[in-house]
Design a protein that fits this description.
This protein is of the alpha/beta class and about 290 residues long. It has nine helices and twelve strands. Bound molecules: adenosine-5'-diphosphate and magnesium ion.
Amino acid sequence: MSAGLRARGVGVVIDGTPILDGVDLDVAAGEVVVLVGPNGAGKSTLLSVLTGDVAPTTGTVELDGRPVASYRARELARRRAVLLQQQRLAFGFRAREVVEMGRAPWHRSAEAERDLEVVAAAEERADVAHLATRLFPTLSGGEQARVSMARVLAQSTTLLLLDEPTAALDLQHQEAVLRVAREEAAAGAAVVVVLHDLSLAAAYADRVCVLAAGRLRASGTPREVVTPALLSEVYQHPVDVVEHAGHLVVVPVRPPRAPATAPAAAAPAVPVPSADPHQEQPCPAT
Ligand SMILES: Nc1ncnc2c1ncn2[C@@H]1O[C@H](COP(=O)(O)OP(=O)(O)O)[C@@H](O)[C@H]1O
Ligand SMILES: [Mg+2]
């Protein structure tokens, strides 16, 4: 039995429109696979097929050697945790209760004895312990995303599927969430992360998969995939890739900015002169 995820020939057609076509993807235990691609490429749809929430029109998905559709709901929830792109609002729930929802699949199992300790560790790792008593809908977008990340961690699964977990996060927490993703992989989990930030993808992925118009356009190590030619083509915008401190950094090519405008042409930094000719005129700023 192979641990991890194996998708073969996955196609999804919605209302006669092909959304995904012939996608093959393997994610092994211990590996972080980052999925990138333009808006509407099919990343979230692919994730929902990998989670078993959407049945593909064609193709198969196996989790730990068995078709994902053959798992009962609780069994599946003990194996894979999902961070959706859109946070569900969880009206009336406090942050702590949202994190505790991650423990639901383990109710009435020996694992439930660890609930308190696991929830505390998950809150710590997602930096949300100080938000525990706050009502979830009153949290900022980034705080909500981190609480949801803590819920995913509390679920204690060996497959994590994270759809744009860093989209609402500040720089510090973006790095922290991806470090946690790498820690989970180091501890034996298979991790799939959808990202838009290609420099983050290059820094944290074992493998980068590029989805474009519903097809897997490329898959390989960051150095194989994060190239100016491929990214410029896929994103239809010229892109440079530079190296900084051992990491690839992806920079969109931009026209140079116009030189700083002369003070006289700048927005009025000086008070508008009075119509009264006797009033002293202020010196223009230089
Ligand atoms: N239920 C749906 N009905 C119609 N179109 C859909 C549905 N779900 C997704 N799509 C379309 O499929 C394409 C891929 O969507 P999605 O997987 O969310 O893309 P991504 O996550 O890469 O931005 C988009 O064009 C989207 O509008
Ligand atoms: Mg999406």
